[in-house]
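Researcher: Structure for this, please.
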Amino acid sequence: MLSKDVLIQIAPRLYEIPTSYRDDMRVPARLYADEEIVEAALGDGSIEQLINTSTLPGVVKYTLAMPDIHQGYGFPIGGVAATALPDGVISPGGVGYDINCGVRLLTSTIEVGAARPHMVQLMDSLVESIPTGVGARGTFRLSKGELYLLLEQGSSWVVGMGYGRQEDLEHTEDEGRMEAANIEALSRRAIDRGHRQVGTLGAGNHFVQVDEIAQIYDEEAAEALNLVKGQVCVWIHAGSRGLGHQVCIDAIKMVQEAKYNIDTPDPELASIPFSSQEGQKYFQAMSCAANFAWANRQAITHLIRRSFEEVFSGHVRSYDLRVAYDVCHNIANIEEHEVAGEPTRMCVHRKGATRALGPGHRAIAETYRAFGQPVFIPGDMERGSYILLATEKATKEAFGSICHGAGRLISRSKARETVSGEDLHQHLENSGIIVRSGNLSGLAEEAPQAHKNVHHIVDVVEDAGLCRRVARTVPLGVIKG
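Model: Predicted structure, token format:
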């Protein structure tokens, strides 16, 4: 059993487990946290999982976990690990099942006062337009040939079909496309599972949330992001659905059958050389799933815009929605970062962590390059969410990474045991938050008390110097899968 004594505080809000702790550690393991977060993490297996990631062949500098850390599959949620190429490994457990699960923020010019009389109608329109739940089928009917194009082109294919605009792509990480995508790397089962799921929300922690911009911390940056206090915005949290899940299932089986004599302390951490035939096949399939997820969020954006037009046309002067930014988590990216002062090409795994590149980085949309990449840390459906900007320190010290949300405090099963979905629904409605959910049991799983306090998490990452806050939003209406 790990004890707190194992962790050495090396900087404000940063702890390290040195390689002397275990013989198989190749690099130290680091955790962005405070004492409260450390204590909580010691209560599950997440820190042990973090230490395990430091044993991966080719791993460089140190492995990381963000303050939203909790136990996951192989990697802890909130885990980051980079392996040097061409000899380093790629681990499906370091990406996860919901490949490119991500968050998109849409901004509007609608003032909350003008929106409130129409909120029930809006939420009804949104829940009718966007299919939710496990196995949900979408209204976008694609031929197999069209699906293949979507898988290889990502968001740009959806925009090209008239469901968006060029600005949407410019404000999406990597413009919504991983070029390594190759449909030949996908199983027939993966393709079949994704065929009718474009434009669907899924279940679990996925959501569409209509919020009010409640507070602005940086006026100049907020203006660049089109954020105005008192106006309506929309959050989308959705991923690659059944297709991404199947890609992970297929990859884990393939990796376990591969004969590369790579020993890992946990079977869930099974890895293969990135440059191997199997490693390339997984990366190509993962890229297809990432493209599917970006296309999915783009399709959902179209459906939300259509609902806003339906509800607000004739009631407000402008109901247009702009994409502020779209950033993914559960991904492996090929990037260049410094190791011992030398630029090094590496595979950066971000499991429940997102990219966070500081000012001036060429991968940031030109609109925001001078400010740093927009960073989103969604909270729960009561306490709200934050929009921040990444710093140069995040690029240099955290492989350009940050947490993807507040993180779970208790498991879904524990939440179902301790929270009444009916009582929670009534509580949120009494608080002025309109809730639309597929079922009350699923709603209970995502209860505010099942998650860490987002204000606390943001304090930690900002104190650590990884980001600076721009704005905070609070919920008006929530759709849960």
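Researcher: Any notable elements?
Model: The radius of gyration is 21 Å. The longest strand covers residues 322-339.
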